[in-house]
């Protein structure tokens, strides 16, 4: 099995690293660049998709997920940040929250899993904002019916579960329907 990322050119990686350093420096209190701060690793990128709650409630599949951007990881001084990549390869934002760490943990977990050893998967990040849900989405290079997901965040108390796209949908469908019903009852549509 190979986990597939979207390659970034060396030029783009350097450009993102410089933008990252500029964002990390604070206002007038800019720190001098040191050799240590220049030791930055920029990963290849992966696409970010979002699913609408109505699509889930109606039982539509992952093929309805919309591509909303891409991101990569930037490591400096053993700290990893997720860098949202905007148009023209600009650094749109930096996220250092729990989903960054959990996404990397999930990738490490599936890299060692026998279940995903049979084929190649494109690494994707899936968001379902209305249900406060995020997942590592492994999109099969052979057949989308083989797609796998790991919901985030992971926790040490529960087993990391790799589930099929159908199972993912079944788990979210009732929540989506309940949320939409509550919105209608509260008349959020107006």
Structure description:
The chain is α+β, with helices and mostly antiparallel strands and 190 residues long. The protein has one domain (3-185). 29% of the residues lie in helices and 29% in strands. It is built from 4 helices and 10 strands, in the order E-H-E-E-H-E-E-E-H-E-E-E-E-H. The protein has helices spanning 10-24, 53-57, 98-111, 165-185, and strands at 3-4, 40-42, 46-50, 66-76, 79-85, 91-95, 121-128, 133-140, 148-152, 163-164. Strands 1, 2, 3, 4, 5, 6, 7, 8, 9 and 10 form a 10-stranded mixed beta sheet that branches. A hairpin with a 4-residue loop joins strand 7 (121-128) and strand 8 (133-140). The longest helix has 21 residues, at 165-185. It is globular and about 50 Å long. The mean pLDDT is 82.
Task: Summarize the model shown.
The chain is of the alpha+beta class.
Furnish the topology, listing elements before pairings:
Elements lengths: L2 E2 L5 H15 L15 E3 L3 E5 L2 H5 L8 E11 L2 E7 L5 E5 L2 H14 L9 E8 L4 E8 L7 E5 L10 E2 H21 L5
Parallel strand pairs: 1-7, 3-7
Antiparallel strand pairs: 2-4, 3-4, 4-5, 5-6, 7-8, 8-9, 9-10
**Overall pLDDT:** 82
Going by helix content, strand content and strand pairing, the class is alpha+beta
Q: Major sheet: size, sense and barrel closure?
A: 10 strands, mixed
> What is the number of strand segments?
10
Task: Give structural attributes.
alpha+beta; 4 helices; ten-stranded mixed β-sheet; 29% strand; 29% helix; 190 residues; 10 strands; single chain
């Amino acid at each position: 099995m190979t986990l597939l990322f979207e390659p970034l050119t060396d030029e783009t990686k350097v450009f993102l690293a410089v933008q990252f350093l500029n964002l990390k420096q604070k206002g007038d209190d800019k720190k001098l660049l040191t050799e240590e701060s220049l030791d930055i690793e920029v990963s290849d990128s992966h696409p970010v998709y979002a699913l609408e709650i109505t699509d889930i409630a109606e039982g539509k599949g992952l093929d309805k997920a919309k591509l909303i951007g891409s991101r990569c990881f930037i490591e400096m001084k053993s700290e990893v940040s997720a860098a949202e990549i905007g148009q023209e390869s600009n650094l749109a934002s930096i996220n250092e929250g729990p989903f960054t760490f959990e996404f990397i943990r999930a990738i490490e977990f599936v890299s060692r899993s026998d279940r995903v050893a049979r084929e190649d998967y494109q690494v994707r990040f899936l968001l379902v904002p209305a249900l406060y849900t995020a997942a590592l989405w492994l999109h099969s290079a052979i057949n989308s019916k083989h797609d796998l997901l790991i919901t985030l965040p992971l926790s040490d108390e529960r087993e990391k579960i790799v589930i099929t796209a159908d199972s993912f949908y079944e788990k979210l469908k009732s929540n989506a329907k309940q949320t939409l019903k509550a919105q209608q009852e509260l008349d959020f549509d107006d």
